[in-house]
Amino acid sequence: MRLEIAYIRSKIGLFRSRLIYDYKPFNRKKMIRFYSNFIKPGDLCFDIGAHTGNRTGAWLSIGGYVVAVEPQPACIDLLEKKFSKDDRFFLLKNAVGKVPGKAILYISTLNPTVSTLSKEWIDVLRNFESSSLWDENVEIDMIMLDTIIEIFGCPEFCKIDVEGYEVEALEGLSVPIKALSFEFFPTTPWQTEKCIGRLEALGTYSYNWSLTESFRLKETNWLPADEMLRTIQGYAGRKSGDVYARLQP
Questions:
Q1: What is the pLDDT of residues 117-164, one digit of tens each?
Q2: Which regions of the chain are under pLDDT 70?
Q3: Which end of the chain is more exposed for a tag (fewer CB within 10 A), N or C?
Q4: CA dist., res. 101 & res. 135, Å (int)
């Protein structure tokens, strides 16, 4: 009975995620148009924290080659069903961090978008959204961004969406990537500061940002690191979003 309940909760949670990310055809068109600014046919892309694969699907539609990295078992099954027949799709069943090895993934079966490796982030989110519940955990294998690059090459674009583990993911990167994004949260501005600091240690970037699933950049002009930090620190909204970074020549 307990396993049946867990299975049902997992199915409900995955369906909820698909309602948010997959079943919005107009969003898909916006997404393809938006990411065409970063990705061209034939480009290699990394989808770190692929979840239901909405971005993977958009990038494949653009003509990219996609390495999707995802540790959640339910999401892995879905990604394989959706994309395994496409020879431009590669799936790594891992989480990304600063060192290889084993780690515990804390899963929210009813809301898998908040599943995370970070206990600190769980504590922050509980204070921000008390209804969140992490009811399962699994041991997973960690891989570094550097290792993925050794295997597949350096991507033209990399998305990092790992629920409070973005800093650790970037700490496993030692070479600059031409363009990338990482998720930010209004509850943890210090993590955004660390992510930008890590990128600036690898190269000089310009920055922009967008709010969740809007696929619209907030700034007309791209910003240097210090201005991007001030902008995020001054953000008073409750929505999360993504910071975009482009390597300067």
A1: 999 889 888 877 666 788 899 999 999 999 999 999 999 999 999 999
A2: 1-8, 15, 129-131
A3: C
A4: 23
Domain-by-domain residue ranges, the chain?
2-247
Pick the CATH number of 2-247 from 3.90.190.20, 3.10.20.30, 3.40.50.150, 3.40.50.790: 3.40.50.150
65-69 vs 44-48, strand pairing mode: parallel
Alpha helices in 129-246 (DSSP H): 145-152, 166-171, 189-202, 225-233
Burial state string for 213-231 with b = 16 or more CB within 10 A and e = fewer than 16:
bebeeeeeebbebeebbeb
Farthest CA pair distance, the chain:
59
Q: Which CA distances in Å does 209 have to 31, 128, 188, 243?
A: 15, 22, 16, 4
DSSP classification of residue 64:
-
Structure tokens at 151: 């295997």
Q: In 66-92, which positions are buried (b, 16+ CB within 10 angstroms) versus exposed (e)?
A: bbbbbbbebbbebbeebbeeeeebbbb
Instruction: Name, in order, each residue with C-beta under 8 angstroms of 3's C-beta and a sequence gap of 6 or more.
Output: none
